[in-house]
Amino acid sequence: METPNSEEAQVEWVAVKEGDQDWIKELADMLTENDIGTAVTLAPGCSAGTCGCRFILMVTEENVDEAQDYIDEHYMTMHPEHRESQEWADQNRCPACGHDVGKDVKECPDCGLVLIFEG
Fold first, then answer.
1. Domain boundaries, the chain
2. Spatial CB neighbours of 106, under 8 Å, sequence gap ≥ 6
C-alpha cells in the first residue's frame, strides 16, 4: 500500500473502495498483482483512533473500470453465494430461494424474503 507522493499527485486518483485496513490492503495487493497501481489514504476526517481507521483505496482514473471488475470478481470468488443470488435476481428469481418472482413483487411468495429490486 502506498500513499500518493508529490509526483503521483499530478495523476488523477479515484476512490474505488473504503474499508478497514486489512480489507483495503487485500484489495490493493490483488490489484497490484494484476498490474494496477494503487494508492491508499485515510478516510476524510479520520485520524488515528477516532473513526475506527477507515481507509480509501484509490486507482488512477484510467484504471477505474478494470479495477472495479477485478474487485467484483475477487469478492464473488470469496463469496460465491452472492454470484448465484445476483444471477437469480437478474432473472426475476428470489435471490434467497430461487423461486420465480415478477418484477413488481415486494415479497417472495415461497420464502417470504422482502424483495427490493433497483429499477
1. 8-62, 79-119
2. 114, 115
